Amino acid sequence: MEITGLISALVIGVIIGGLGRLVVPGRQKISMVMTLLVGIAAALVGTFAASLIGVSDTSGIDWIELALQVGLAGLGVTTLARRRTHQPH
Fold first, then answer.
1. Residue 53 lies in a domain
2. 12 within domain boundaries
3. In this predicted model, what pLDDT tens digit does every residue of 19-66 receive, in sequence order?
4. Residue 15 included in any domain
5. For residue 75, is it within any domain?
6. Which of 19, 23, 31, 43 is most buried as measured by Cβ atoms within 10 A of its Cβ?
7. Sequence-distant (≥ 6) Cβ neighbours of residue 47 within 8 angstroms
8. What is the C-alpha to C-alpha distance for residues 60 and 79, in angstroms, rounded to an integer?
9. How far is it, in rounded angstroms, from Cα 75 to Cα 67?
10. Which 8-state DSSP code applies to residue 10?
11. Containing H/E element for 41?
12. How many whole angstroms from its chain centre is CA 31?
């Protein structure tokens, strides 16, 4: 992955985090900062996974890569929200 790919993955990660939060039903009790960090991680991992399966570089919008990223962000948001809910006060 080149530096431009890394930077674009980080920028897209901010958007992915928001989309990941939107696909999870209900209210998530995690901060926006955590949502953004989850989005960045999901964008990076999703991009890597898409490159492994050969769908990261297509001649248009990379819908499969985007779906992987949003799905991973949704999973991350759900995991963090559940961990926060089950912590003792």
1. yes
2. no
3. 988 888 888 888 888 888 899 899 889 989 998 998 877 788 888 888
4. no
5. yes
6. 43
7. 1, 5, 9, 56, 65, 69
8. 32
9. 12
10. H
11. helix 32-53
12. 15
